[in-house]
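Human: Here is a favour to ask of a fellow structure person. Comparing notes only helps if you start from a blank page. I am asking you to supply a protein in sequence and C-alpha cell form. Write it directly below this note and I will take it from there.

Assistant:
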Amino acid sequence: MLETGGGRSLPDGPGGAVPVRATSGRSVPATLLETPSPDGRPADPVTGWVVLHGVTRPGRSHPSMVRFAQALATTGGRVLIPEIPEWTRLELAPDRAQEIIRGAVEWLATDPGTRPGGVVVVGFSFGAPQALLLASDPGLGSRVRGVVGWGGYADLARTFAFHLTGEHEWNGQHYRRDPDPYGRWVVGANALPLVAGFGDATPVADALRALAAHAGDHQIPAGDPALDSLKVSLRVGLPRRYRPLFDLFAPPAGQIPPADEARQLVEIIIPAARRAMPLLDPLRMIEGIRVPVRLLHARSDRLIPFTETLALADALERRAPDLKTGVTGLFGHSGGAGDGGPLTQLQSGAGFLKALRTVFETSA
C-alpha cells in the first residue's frame, strides 16, 4: 500500500492509502509527500517525482532521503518514494527493483494529482543507473519527463576496484582517496555466493551482510573503528579457511586489501555478478534516452568516485541529447556522521538550494 501523509515523511503518519503494485503484481509500501493547498481546496496538478532510496537499511525513511523529499515537496511537487524491500535487505536485485520502479512511475504518472507529461525519476547511488535504464525504455512513452542520477556509477568493475583500493582515474588523471568499506561489504555479500572458485563462500557473504546491516541499523559510518570489535566477532564465527577472504573485505578500520589480492577479487567476482545479474551494469543496455538527463556527483565521494559520473556522461553524450553534468562539493555518500549506508548526506542552505534548482530544470 502507499501511505500518504499530507507532507509527512514517515509511513505511519496520518492519511489515506492506495495500492501501488510492481509490474510483477506484488504491492510494496511507499511514501507520498505533497504540500496541501493553503485554502484546503484541491490543488492543480503538479510535477511528480519518483525518488529511489539506494541500497540502505532505512530505505525510504533514511534521514537524508526524508530531507531531500521534503525539499522537493515544499516546491509544490508530489514526491513518491517506493520501498524496495530487497535494497533494505542489502540485496542488489536489479531485476526486482526495476519492477517496483516501473510500478511506482505508472501509479504517480497516471494519478489525477500529477501534472500530465510524465514524472521525473531520481536515483541515488546504486539507484542512479537503474533510473537511467528505466528512462531509456521507449515503451514508457509519456510516463517519464526527465531523469536525475546522483552519485551513480558507469561500470561495476571500476567501482568495485575503487571500493577495494580507493584508486580511480579520468582522462589520464589518477586519483586516490580512502574508500568507504560499505560498498565492498555489500558487493561481497551479494556476489561471493555466485563465485564457483571460492567453494561455498556463503558464510563470508552472511558475515559481510551482517556487518553492513549493523552499520546501517545503528547509523555508524562504515569506516568507524567502533565496528572493529564486530569484525573480530564475525571473523571468529567463520570456518578457518574462510577467514582470510573475510579479512580482504573487512580489515581493521583505515586499512585496505593488498593491491594484488584486490585485483584478483575484481577479476573473479565481477564476471560472476554480471552473469547472474546483467542489470548491475545497465549502461551497455541503454541505446538512447530521449528525456532530459541530469547527472550530479560529489567530488569528495568515498563510496562511488565522481569519475564514474564523468564516465556516465561521456558514454551517454551521443545517446542523450539533453544531458547536463555537475560535480559539486555539496554532498557525498559518506560525508556526515551517522551515515552507515549509501545515501547522500544532503546539506541545507543556499548552496543546496542552488543544486536543487539545476534538478528542477528537468521538470520544466
